TrEMBL record:
GO molecular function, one term: sequence-specific DNA binding
UniProt keyword annotation of Transcription present: yes
Boundaries of every HTH araC/xylS-type domain copy: 160-258
Amino-acid biosynthesis as UniProt keyword: no
This protein's name: AraC-type DNA-binding protein
Entry keywords, A to Z: DNA-binding, Transcription, Transcription regulation
Organism of this sequence: Halomonas korlensis
């Protein structure tokens, strides 16, 4: 591989863990993918992207409903890219970054162009990479020349370990004190760091993981809705259905019919 390679993909629910010898940019125009790298885990969505340096081990699981742009950037191709030295600094460490509305709309437009004219993928990729570079260069927290605030906070929270523990205890009453203890932090300090890193309170994040797991079961299993509710920690099917509708704007039974 010696040129920029841009692909439009749907990342499925299979767990993937690997590393590769090229940099990678991942942007989603819709849906979500859980991705862990460098001791930090986040959801890649329409307003959250990630930069993966070459040889960095990472793991991901998609929701099967996403539309994702994956840009592979071989080191040998950087010399031909404008502002290549600055772009190289984007990949000095694994990082997640905020995607503003304008960049998300550009990604969506470029995805459509890529699907219509796949032969132009390298030119479209260069335009996308340039737009990202200009966006991060303007960020006040040093998206190009310094370590992002998200990464600094992520070093204090092992999100991958937290996610694994939460997923193993979805049927239980999960308390913030338990999560804080896993990170050897006081409850108050953990709450502050967690919200700063993820944008969610710990309780809201646990609820989200419960419901995302439930959606997978609703769409890909024949378990009754009452059984699913009990598996993810809801006391009754009614409260589960109400929470599900608030999160996904469709009832569990409606989601099962759509799928």
């Amino acid at each position: 591989m010696s040129f920029l390679e841009l692909k439009s993909r749907i990342l499925g629910p299979e767990h993937v863990a690997h590393a590769h010898d090229y940099h990678q940019l991942i942007l989603a125009t819709c849906g979500a993918t859980e991705l862990a790298m460098g001791g930090c885990a986040e959801r890649v969505t329409g307003n959250r992207g990630c930069l993966i340096p070459c040889t960095s081990h990472h793991e991901f699981v998609g929701d099967g409903r996403n539309r994702t742009l994956v840009l592979d950037i071989p080191l040998s191709s950087l010399a031909s890219v404008r502002d290549s030295s600055g772009i190289e600094r984007l990949f000095d460490k694994p990082r997640f970054f905020s995607v503003p509305t304008g960049l998300n709309e550009l990604a969506g437009s470029l995805m459509r162009q890529l699907e219509q004219c796949p032969a132009l993928h390298s030119e479209i990729a260069a335009l996308l990479l340039r737009a990202l570079y200009l966006h991060l260069k303007a960020e006040p927290h040093g998206g190009v020349d310094g370590l992002s605030l998200t990464h600094q906070t992520g070093e204090r929270l092992d999100m991958q370990r937290l996610d694994i523990w939460i997923d193993r205890h979805l049927a239980d009453d999960i308390r913030v004190e338990q999560l804080a203890a896993l990170c050897a932090l006081s409850t108050g300090h953990f709450h502050h760091c967690f919200r700063h890193l993820t944008g969610y309170t710990p309780q809201a994040y646990v609820q989200l993981r419960r419901l995302e797991h439930a959606r997978s079961l609703v769409c890909h299993s024949t378990l009754s809705l009452g059984h699913i509710a009990s598996l993810i920690g809801f006391r009754d099917q009614g409260s589960f259905s109400r929470a599900y509708r608030r999160q996904f704007e469709v009832s569990p039974s409606g989601d099962r019919r759509i799928d």
